Amino acid sequence: MKDTGIQGTAQSAQAGAQKAAESSWVDGLARFGLGAKGFSYGLIGVLAGALAFGVGGQAASREGALEVLADESYGKVLVVALALGFTAYGLWRLVQAIFDRDDEGSGAKGIAKRVGYLGRAVLYGVLTWTTLQLLDGSGGGGSQTGEARNATAQVFDWPAGRWLVGLAGLILIGVGIFNGYRAFTQKFEENWKTEEMSRSERVWGARLSSLGLLARFVVFALIGGFFVKAAYQYDAKEAIGLDGALRKVADASYGPVLLGIVAAGLLCYALFCFVEARYRRI
Prior knowledge:
By secondary structure, this protein is mostly helical. Helix content is about 75%, strand content about 0%.
C-alpha cells in the first residue's frame, strides 16, 4: 500500500514535470536564448570583419566579443541581458534532453541527439558563468586559444589523455561536417513555420542560413583539425580556439579576403539564429 502511494506520487510528479516542460514558457526561453545566441555570433562576425580589414586586434571569439562589449558604457546592461539569454538557451536544451520535446525517441539516433542537447546545455551554462564574470572584471584577460592550450596540456596528463584530445578534435570535425550537411540539405526549414513566412523571407532566409552554417563548418573543422594535430604531435601548443581558427584563416594566402568571407558567414549564422528565434517550431 505504501509502495503504491510512493509510486503514485512519483508518477504525479513526473506528469507535472512533463506538463511544465510542454508549456509556453519553454517557447519563450527558446526564442530569447536563440536571439542571444544570434547577437553573440553577430559580435564575433563584426570583430572578425574588423580583423580582416586590419581594424583593431581583439580576440575574435565569443568571450573576446563579450569582453569588448563589457568595456562600453552601455555594455554591462547588454552583458547581463546576454547572460540571461544564454541561461534561457541552456535551460531550453536541458528540457529537450530530459523530456524529449522534439519526440526524438529512445533509439540510438534519438539518444545521440538528446546527449547533444545536454552537451549544449552544459556549454551554455559555462558560457553564462564566464559572461557574468565580466561584470566584476574577474573574467577575460586571456584568449580562447590560450585556454584551449592550457586545457589540452592538462588533459595530456590524464590516463589516455592524448587519445581524449584526439577524440575531442574528431568530435569538433564531426560538428563541422554536420553544419555543412545542414547547409546543403537545408533541412532546418522543416523546423520553421514556413506558412507564416513571406516567399522572400523563406528563400533568402534559407540561402543566408546555409552560408552561416558553412562558415561554422570552416571554423569547427579548423579547430578540430588542430586538436587532432596537437594529439598526433603530443604538443598542446598546436590546439586553438575560435580566435585562433580565425587568425589561421587571416594568415593564409589571400587571408584578409578569406577572413572577410568567413566573417560575413558568421553574420549570416547570426541571422539564421534570429530567423530560428522568430519562426522555429519549439
